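ok so heres the complex, three chains, lmk if somethin looks off
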Amino acid sequence: MPAALRRLLQAVPLLLLISVLVFALVHAAPGGPLAIYLENPNVRPADIERLRRSLGLDQPLPVQYLKWLGGFVTGDWGFSFTDGRPVTARLLERLPATLELVGASLVLALVAAVPAGVLAAVRRGRATDRIVSAVTIAAISLPAFWFGLLLQLVFAVWLGWLPSSGRSSLFGSGIGDRLAHLALPATVLAILHAAAWTRYLRSAMGNVIAQRFILAARGRGLHERTVRYRHALRNALLPFLTVVLLDAAIMISGAVVTESVFAWPGLGGLFTEALARRDYTVLMAFLMISSVGVIVLNLVADLSYRWLDPRVRA
Amino acid sequence: MSAANEQSATNMRWAWGLVLALVGVAILAPLVAPFAPDAVDLALRRQGPSALHWFGTDDLGRDVFTRVLHGARVSLAIGLLAAALSVALGTAIGLVAGFIGGAVDTGLMRLTDAMLAVPRLPLLMILTAILQPSIPLLIILVSVVGWMETSRVVRSEALSLGRRGFIEAAQALGLSRTRVLVRHMLPNVLPTVIVSATLAVGRSILLESALSFFGVGVQPPAASWGNMLYQAQSTMTSEPWLALFPGLAIFLTTLAVNAAGERLSTPAVS
Amino acid sequence: MRMLNVARRAALLGAFVLGSCSGEGGGRRGTGPSNDLLVVGYDREPDTLNRFSTHILEDVQTCVIEGLVTNDEHMNVIPVLATEVPTIANGGVTLRPDGGMDVTWKLRPGVKWHDGVPFTSADVKFTVDAINSPDYNPESTDGFDRITSVDTPDSLTAIVHYREHYAPYQLQFVRGTLPRHVLEGKDIDRATEYNRSPLGTGPYRVAEWKTGEYILLERVPNYWRGSEFPKIKRIQFKFIPNTTTRVNQLASGEAHVVALVPWDKYRDLKDVPGLTVHRMIGNSYEHITLNQRQVEAFRDVRVRQALTHAIDRELIVRTILDSLAPVVHGAIQPVSWAFTDSVRHYPFDTARAKTLLDETGWKDANGDGIRERNGKPLAFTLLTQAGFAIRESVSQAVQRQLRDVGVDVKIQLVDGTAISSLWFEGKFDAMLHWWHMPADPEITLFFASDRTPPAGRNINYVSDKALDDLMYASDREIDQVKRRVLLVKAQQRLAELAPEIPLYNVTRLDGVPTSLKGFKGNPTNTGVFWNVWEWEVTP
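and the predicted structre for the whole thing:
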């Protein structure tokens, strides 16, 4: 796939640019990795200086950046300032939890959004459309933290049906236990995204339905169902897919709030912790990995156009 | 068909009325509000809704009704202005990229990619840690991290439209590129843009509340709906009104903006 | 009460259109606490379990690694791996004529590391040497850097030589020791195996550390206090950073123990069946630091006194804190042997505050409600940490009360790391916060004129010769009775100077199962697990 390869190569300067930006931002945030030690009365200035030197933070920023870049390119991402373990190990052990949560949310959200969006578009202005609209608007009006805490209160504290947080029980092995833990955070993430997706799909389909070639298809005497799903949905899927893929990329790094509320052991939680401690190596790796993820998914989205939209393919 | 149109016109009037009313309330808040927004009275804390305090009082004995009114100024400013800014930016970039194509497209899309690639909330959290959050700054930051989705969606629509006959025909007729862009492309991508914009209003308000969740949103004692919700999280069971009213305010705003955008996004069937 | 709750739930649910699942309520999900498993809701994940490397208060480590001494629930120093706490009276401490000091630690015989190797004085010596070595970067070398050498005349005696008199010597080994036979010759900073699963002598060892989720401890078979200890088989520390979530876990029964419950969550927990919220005066105090270097007005003692008079601390405590923590008047807390209450108090008195401010020339000449002097308004920014609901409330109440006497306060919320660097650089006007106070009442660090950052934590930038002399004399005084006399005078001097506004004691609320016997709590940063070996769940 040479087109894909070319795009990947184009991504290299892009990533370089991102890395400079992000490095500057991360280091511009007030307080460094050592600020946390200031709270402890037993740590003296000499200790701080000693730690600063040992972490290489006493060198000028450009030197630190080049060192970081050299390491990053050669696969040596350094050690976490927090616990002294390799950054790669810290990211890798968090990744499965995030993929699990994002995967589940994606499936849930798609299952909810596609039928709801199609239905609303087809029955535009009627009761079904109104109900879908009311529900989606309610959902996009809810802050994730707030919605998450509400679900937690209802299903974990009052009803006792589901665990309030975490990813697994200590001795509760098995898929049932995992699903129970997954239920609330995945629902929160899914609903927030499904609501937005429903509205996009509804609009995109409404748009397509009104277009001439659909009218033409109807005119040719094609069955209404065929028109609706074969032609309208297929054409509406193009912009919809863009949104879904982008959201998926954003979810991987952006479930910060949901992971925090549900103590989910994923990358979002790692970011919050690393930002609070200004763990530069972890922050840089997290932001770079997220960027690579978005770039790859963008590529996938672009390639899918060719496949999905016959007009672009032509 | 005409009955449906009539009804949707009524809805529209109603929705625009609501949007205007909300904006009006925000502007007039200091005149309308029965109390001062920072009138702390610890002796009167956590009172339920009453004739005097319609929405009850908060943890510090302040009138919640007053704070919802004052919160409207901050939340609507962030919601409407940031949404307008980010969608305008995104539409412009997406249209130009999709229409002109070539190196311009590549350049703009790489910029979009770069901005998109860095995760939004983390980026905002870092930015607000560096810069002291003030309301104008929050508006700018929220729009700076929010235009990329619009630009990508608009571009892909423009790309798709660009391959269709009628725009090529318009060009063949010798119409200028700008004219084609503004007169023919823009109306066609408008439905998508409107949805983007209406979604962006709610999203911007919520981004502010997420920042409040991490303590870097609008600073106390100023009220925003987002930080009111955040402050209400620990009293959800005992004083639900603290969460109910700002939550309803966000819901109403999102609802009104979406309904108002509805008619505009319905494509004209010729 | 019950009806009210149900009504509230119903109202809440109805309001948010989330279906009709109100009602029967209280389905507790987790298995109850038992001697088989105790679940602890913990506010964060430890960085490393090496007690000398971590900056995090160390409850997990306390269960695994034992110090030569520990702090009990009254903040007394009691022996653990030492047979007694060395003092001058028992001959454990000798003051050398050259100004130095020797401390003799007698170790408890028969104690073994979890791998069966005997614990000896060589481990004590190794620990001191490792910490003072340039090859290892511990979090702090305080105290250790005053040690010149350690002698080990026999396997159960370690004589520690200090180059100067050092009053807090008793707590030198409160964190325990490093096992020589495991770490000798290793890069301790990167000794991942030890740092993730440290070898100790305590009642528990690490069975599993699931990153981002929990640490599971299991009892060791032959604990030195007797094989009947510890009574509880397993302890799970679950990492739940979000406070509301942590409290929800406690309410739902998924967690059994949560230490340091915020005061505003007490209401949610006090009626949870089977749960006791243990309340204990802490060793810290919330206060407002007034940065004299940054704000000229704060340099006048009358202004500082006026501000203290203007804040109704009793009201704040009664309302925002639900009377869970008492108002305090100084830096040394009632749990300390050095505490005195015979210091000057500043009762809420707006008239007095106004008079004092008038005297200093700060008057509201232009009638805008804010005092000014030489055309400059009496205004400052109050910095406090984001994410603490109580602090946000308290700062707004303070803002209001100071406004009532004509002082204009702005509030700024900043994240924890940023706040640390701001105070370290002295770049703030005033700050609402508390310190982790050491168990030893050494306050030089916070108030001596030469201990401003970076040399210390005197961020009030108070400078008073009489106070300095009293504090430094107390640091050098090994005799506790004489030391207390000096510290009482220091506290009285401090109250006169009012360099900061003390608000209230950081009173600990620890949520524990009612069926848990042996829980005693702890006011210091030793944490509540110091006596975990004797905890027992009795149905």
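quick notes: DSSP finds 13 helices and no strands in chain A. thats all i got rn
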